[in-house]
Amino acid sequence: MSDLIKRNFLGMPVSGEIRQGFPRHDQNPVEELAPLLQALLDDPTITEFGWAQYTPYFNDGEVCEFSAGEVWVRTIEEVDTEEHEYDNYELSWDYHPSLGRESWEYRGEWPNREYVGLGYKGPDEERYHQVKALNAAIASGWYDTALLNAFGDHALVTVRKNGIEVESYEHD
């Protein structure tokens, strides 16, 4: 905004050119997350789930903004063994070893190419879609203010049936 604006801040006059930033979109009430979380907590095959949330450190010229990342899920089938110990990246909801997945492919030639869904393959489509819905909500940005207030910045959030654990999260 190039016009000089007359403003005050806590009763003190502010002068100069005020540039409008990029306001965050309105936030949804945190209560809307409750049924999505409860669906996973009620599932007897899901032992824990969570996400990382943080403000990036890098500076590529864009403003670094807080956000919550993709949801990960551990089911009774991902029990840590001597042969394999799963980390959160391997348990990401969309490439999860025991939730199943939806497949997609491109069909046709450019410029009429289409991305076509091939359907779900796995043991429990309803469970998959419940996890997908929670991920869509958490990663959407619509609850970032509530998540930041509840769990803080640079946090790994782990939700279990008996409570929520927050650990410090190291990232690049």
Number of strands: 9
Whole-number average pLDDT?
83
The gyration radius over C-alpha positions equals: 21 Å
Largest sheet: 5 strands, antiparallel
Distance between the termini: 34 Å
Question: What fraction strand?
Answer: 25-35%
What structural category arises from helix and sheet content?
alpha+beta
Alpha plus pi helix count: 3
Number of domains: 1
* Helix/strand order, N-terminal first: EEHEEEEEHHEE
Helix content: 10-25%
Characterize the overall form: globular
Low-confidence stretches: 1-5
Keywords:
single chain, 172 residues, alpha+beta, 5-stranded antiparallel sheet, two-stranded antiparallel ribbon, 3 helices, 9 strands, 19% helix, disordered N terminus
